[in-house]
Input
Amino acid sequence: MIEVERWSATVGHSVGLRTINERINQLSPLVHQFHHTPLEQIPEVIQLDGIWVTITEQGEVVVFDRRNRARNERHGKKRVILVALGFWTENGEEKREIVDWQIAESEKHEEWEVLLHRLVKRGAKADNGLKAIIRDGCGGLGQAVEWCMHRV
Output
């Protein structure tokens, strides 16, 4: 309920959870379009990293809250957001922005390969100006970078 209160404060009037869910569901086609649109500018450098978060999911079991309202039990599940952050120079100024991302179960190479394959398909490759990929020491990511970048 804290999220509902924050949204309400942001927009200046009461916002219900149903309204928030409707807005989030409206974003789904835009996210799909984002993930499949060719990159307008290919970054010179892409930095890859995973950010671990807990995502709350609604369960099947019904419980009663403090006001005796029936609610589906919620539980948190650890997920990782795999992020590709692009860096390039534009008109003498450095620019950086997220060029792609996905929510995954782990940082295993199979998960990273999906993101990397999509980046290549969207145009992120050496032929188009990509000069470097920066990554941490995660073994799965290293294996995925080697696999994807040597296949283009």
User: Anything to note?
Assistant: The chain has a mean pLDDT of 84. Residues 1-37 form one domain. Residues 17-36 form the longest helix (20 residues). The chain is about 35% helix and 35% strand.
